[in-house]
Amino acid sequence: MEIKKISATKVIDAPAEAVFAVLADPNQHTELDGGGMVKGPEGKAGPIGGIGQVFAMNMHQDALGDYRMINTVTAFVPDSRIGWGPAMDPDCDAAKNFEGVDVSGHTYTWDLHESDGRTEVTETYEWTGVKDPQFEQLFPLVSEEDLEKSLDKLAKAVG
Questions:
Q1: Is residue 59 pLDDT above 70, yes or no?
Q2: Buried b (16+ CB within 10 A) or exposed e, 114-136
Q3: pLDDT tens figures, 134-156
């Protein structure tokens, strides 16, 4: 069976509470993006507070131009685990390029394990939920190196 996920791990010199606070703030996600696609939330986004919450993020890729993703929170355990599954906003201009294609099913999840005031953070990018074969051909959309860059940026953002 094909493995449909990648992950990267880094120990950050900060308590899990501080790391989680940055991850739970969509307004800071641009600073964390190792793939260079995240441009910022649609409007001023409140903090992520639980599974099922939705927030919109403006994005850009050279091949697609500007587009918007609707993110649904899929994991939420304060100071321990947070994640979301993006899907293309059907109302954005780039969605025309994917008419009839289900552009969802992938997730980003961060697991935090604190020890002695430091936090081991693992970011996992998974696409096992992608059902559309046309969309699945594009995966992975980010690399393990991109995840490592994101964790380095997270360490800087925390402090």
A1: yes
A2: beeeebebbbbbbbeebeeeebe
A3: 899 989 989 999 999 999 999 99
CA distance linking residue 119 with residue 54, whole number of Å: 26
Strand segments, DSSP code E, in the chain are: 5-12, 38-41, 54-61, 65-77, 81-88, 107-115, 118-126
Q: Residue 159 is encoded by which pair of tokens?
A: 């402090």
Report all structural domains of the chain as residue ranges with CATH numbers, in order of start.
Answer: 5-158 (3.30.530.20)
Q: Exposed (0-12), middle (13-18) or buried (19+): which is 156, by Cβ within 10 Å?
A: exposed
Instruction: With CA atoms as reference, report the closest residue to 129 among 151, 112, 109, 154.
Output: 109
Q: Whole-angstrom Cα distance, residue 25 to residue 27?
A: 5
